[in-house]
């Protein structure tokens, strides 16, 4: 069942139930009030009949005649029965009425009055003491008029109820169309999204309602999906382009090598080149696997020393820096030892910092790389600065994207993964990475650690 049909059904049922209950309450309230009105009229009729029949000897003849003339339509003899103390009808022609029983007469004497309905008749009896004795006066009236009013009321209310249900049904259908039109528009836009324009966000409605929240949530999800799709596309492009070089080198060397016998030195040289290319492919794949599992890492943070991590990286990369005619300088400007203690994943942070320092060495072109550990307002900072070629301004915003490499890297080998991987690791540890670079002057990578609480 669609939301529109569900809304229509629920609103119609709700209105129907409320209308039925309301109609029932109105009907029974009107029924009781009308019945009370009829009995009240009969009570007045009974009192007038008692005065007319029992006070005749005490009233002047002209007054008695006036009463008979005014109330003749009420005190018809066939509707009145005046019972004496022996339960005999002494006045009126309503004799031997089977609906008036001895129990009713006794109830009138005990309670001074009684009312009831029987055989489509209203009955009302009153106790009337007189100088001639104590009497019970009963009057009756047909309830045809009462039944007719109740029937008309029932027909009117039933008609109104049916018309109301039909009206609320069609109104609900119309309102559901209006209410769910934004949702229909969202669904229509989503259905138009395909693989080629998946990054296109749905236009916001600016209504500050649930539909707006749905669109924002969808756009966020779409953005993440788009990033993953882009990552897959880049990965395919990267694999097809970047892996071709080492694989072509391996296959080319082996094809040439297999054409004739070689000396042991030539064997070792080709094997070394092939192994270097294999190691390069393996390193790229390991980094990619690590990036793919970054979001699945569980809480594995343990207290560690950042300065010790820096020295491990120094020991590992200092020989490589010397090969590039460069060097690594470490400047420790931290006065609070507690700032150097940081809860994190040591292996990941080592890899992230290693990539940053290695990149600086690659592009230092014989100039030193400086690592500075400093503090400011109870916060640890690490800066990795080189005096190399720098990064063009148009590349600076994209430099941390996966597989992206600057236009001025020349022959320096790289996969475009290291910086992106480092940023993902730093984000995982809530460490802010800022890159500042000036072309032909150098590059600075500033790491801002969380405030030490």
TrEMBL record:
It catalyses: ATP + protein L-histidine = ADP + protein N-phospho-L-histidine. Residues 238-453 form the Histidine kinase domain. Keywords: ATP-binding, Cell membrane, Kinase, Membrane, Nucleotide-binding, Phosphoprotein, Transferase, Transmembrane, Transmembrane helix, Two-component regulatory system. It comes from the Bacteria. Its EC number is 2.7.13.3. The keyword Coiled coil does not apply. The chain crosses the membrane at residues 7-30, 150-171. One of its GO terms (cellular component) is plasma membrane. It is a multi-pass membrane protein. Its main location: membrane. InterPro entries: HATPase_C_sf (IPR036890), HATPase_dom (IPR003594), His_kinase_dom (IPR005467), HisK_dim/P_dom (IPR003661), HisK_dim/P_sf (IPR036097), HssS/ArlS-like (IPR050398), Sig_transdc_His_kin-like_C (IPR004358). One of its GO terms (molecular function) is phosphorelay sensor kinase activity. It is found in: Cell membrane. PANTHER family: SENSOR HISTIDINE KINASE CPXA. This is histidine kinase.
